[in-house]
Amino acid sequence: MRNTPRRKRYLVSRLNLSAIKAEFPILRREIRGKNRLIYLDSGATSQKPNSVMAAERDFYENHNAAVHRGAYQLAEEATELYEGARAKVAGFINADIDEVIFTKSATESINTIAYSLGSAKAGTRFHIRAGDRIVVSEMEHHANLIPWQELASRTGAELVWFKVSEEGRLDTSNIDELINERTKVVALTHQSNVLGTIVPLDQITAKAHSVGALFVLDACQSVPHYKVDAKALMVDFIAFSGHKMLGPTGVGILWGKKDLLDEMPPFLTGGSMIETVTMEGATYLDAPKRFEAGVPNMAQAIGLGAAVEYLNALGLDDIHAHEVELTKRALEGLQSITGLSIIGPKDLEMRGGVVSFAVQGIHPHDLGQALDQYGIAVRTGHHCAWPLMRRFKTIATTRASFYLYNDFDDIEALIDGVERARKYFQSR
Hints:
Number of strands: 18
CATH superfamily of the largest domain: Type I PLP-dependent aspartate aminotransferase-like (Major domain)
CATH topology of the largest domain: Aspartate Aminotransferase, domain 2
CATH class of the largest domain: Alpha Beta
Shape: globular
Number of domains: 2
Number of helices: 13
Strand content: 15-25%
Structural class: alpha/beta
Distance between the termini: 20 Å
Helix content: 25-40%
Oligomer: single chain
């Protein structure tokens, strides 16, 4: 049975959705028989347009050489393409080019900062010691929690956290208690990958800086969807991943203020990041090369540059406006289903295109498998956020996350699919 929507409901979008869908070959797939693929798991990883795949292929077919190493033509072309990708990413987040570091992933980016703080020499602003404080929140992805747990364990620092309200908002009522003169790091997500909640940063960054703390922002769920201005946000570091913003897997970004990057001890050492080397020791280059030891992920970085061009051509404002409308319809339709509860904000204020929910009497994994039979791909589980699941007294949720290639038929199919699954399980 095809996953046709219950009813047609076209809302105004500034995006040419038919043209966009045509750019993503995977969306032409049929799933579980003759169902069209309805991909609603972009919060985990996004699909890739033709231009991104073509950029990677072109690099391997025509320019493949190690960057920053050879004086021959291929190496020069590879280096130019690689640094061109860095410039595109820098422009995308309004950063200076030498503040943008290519990593393997956002996880590696955050671990780079945590490692540097744990290995910095005493007396520097990066040195973390017993009695210092690290502040996170209950809504963090494990990638922005476990590195700080490990840093606290290694150094004897204290880990504390903002709690999350019943409505899925960050509770900042005790901000003065949490962020005090002992606080050295505040590390928060920009948008929850489970709740869709967008964190209000101004008050928290101001408080962090008032006590001299560094602010680390996990922007994996924000950079792909709406404008993130590195300079305007008043944060010290930003981490995000390429694969969530139409780019390839295997490439992430660490942005940091230049003066901080030049002081940080490197996470990895080896070729390409050195200034001088003797048998007794070495000195290191300034950022970004300081943090890019070894042959980098060249084709992936170039593919990410192509993804940035694609997003710029569509316009992040239009992308975000489109996702808001999708989320509005999803919240409205899902909440009309008997026994369904939304985990997180039920309104659109400071909210992204992620909707987590539970249906009474149906395990999220069973619901996800039922939706898969209709061709609908959603995420089920703890979403790498176990503390948040415990906060809401659940072991898992079903999560739908939207992106620029989703349309309103996709949302209607989701609503209809959940209702069909509910009737099936409750009739057994």
